[in-house]
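Q: I'm writing up a methods section and want to include an example of the input and output format. Could you take the sequence below and give the corresponding predicted C-alpha cells, formatted cleanly so I can copy it straight into the document?
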Amino acid sequence: PDEKAALLEPPEGEIVQMEEMILNLAGPEETYLKIRLALVLDTVTLAEEFEHELPIAQDVAVLYLSSLEPEELRSLEGKEHVKEVLTEKIKEEYKGEHVLEVLITELVMQ
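A: Here is the clean output for your methods example:
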C-alpha cells in the first residue's frame, strides 16, 4: 500500500444519512430518480451537531442530480463519476470542512 497517500487522507469520522430524495432527471423521457446519500464526516465533526447543516448538502445534490440525464447513471462508471462530482461539490459548499466523502446508499431510476 502507498503509505504516503494513507498519511494524506484524513481519518474518517461518523456517517450521517440524508433524507431520501425523489427527483425528475433531465432529458426527453420522464424519468424519476430515487436516491439516498450519506456523508462521511471528518473526525472533529459530530453527526448530531451536523444535522442542521444537511439542507445545504441536499440543495447541492438536488441541483446537480436533477440536471443529469438517465444515461449518466446507468453504468457503474457513471455512478462513480456522479459520486465523485457530488463529493467535490458538497465539499466545496462546506469550504473543505466537515465532509470527506459522499456515499450513495440507495439509487433507483424509473
